[in-house]
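Figure 3 (text version): C-alpha cells given as input.
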C-alpha cells in the first residue's frame, strides 16, 4: 500500500495523521483542565501549564512542517522521501508530547522528539529549496 502511493498521497497521509496527533493533544489539555478543575485564563497551575505546553509546542512546529511536506508532495519528490519526513515528524511529535507530559524536566522522549523535529525542519527546508530549482 505505501509502496504504490504517489508523493501527494503520502503527504496527505501524514497531514491527516498529524491532524489526529493535534486532536489528541487538544483532548489531553481539555481532560487535564477538567481533572485539575482549572478555570479558563488561570495561569497559576503548574501541572496545567505543562499540559498546555505539550499542545503549544506542537502548534509551533506541526503547521509549518505540514505545509512544507504538502509542498514537497506537490513538487513530486519521491514518495519515500515524504514517508521519511512525515513519519519522522509524526513519531517525533508523539515522543515529545509523551516526554513533556510525563516530566517538566529532561526526558528521553522529549529530547528525541525535539531532535527529530529539528531534523524534519532541515530536511523539509532543504528539500523545498533544492527542488525549487530542480525539476
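Below: residues designed for each position.
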Amino acid at each position: 500500500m505505501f509502496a504504490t502511493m504517489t508523493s501527494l498521497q503520502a503527504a496527505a497521509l501524514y497531514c491527516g495523521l498529524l491532524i489526529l496527533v493535534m486532536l489528541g493533544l487538544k483532548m489531553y489539555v481539555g481532560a487535564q483542565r477538567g481533572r485539575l478543575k482549572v478555570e479558563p485564563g488561570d495561569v497559576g497551575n503548574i501541572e496545567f501549564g505543562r499540559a498546555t505546553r505539550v499542545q503549544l509546542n506542537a502548534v509551533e512546529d506541526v503547521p509549518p512542517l505540514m505545509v512544507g511536506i504538502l509542498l514537497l508532495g506537490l513538487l513530486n519528490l519521491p514518495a519515500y522521501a515524504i514517508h521519511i519526513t512525515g513519519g519522522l515528524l509524526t513519531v517525533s511529535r508523539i515522543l515529545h508530547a509523551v516526554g513533556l507530559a510525563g516530566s517538566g524536566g529532561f526526558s528521553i522522549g522529549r529530547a528525541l522528539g525535539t531532535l527529530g523535529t529539528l531534523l524534519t525542519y532541515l530536511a523539509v527546508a532543504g528539500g523545498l529549496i533544492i527542488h525549487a530549482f530542480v525539476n
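Helices lie at 7-36, 46-74, 79-102, 108-133.
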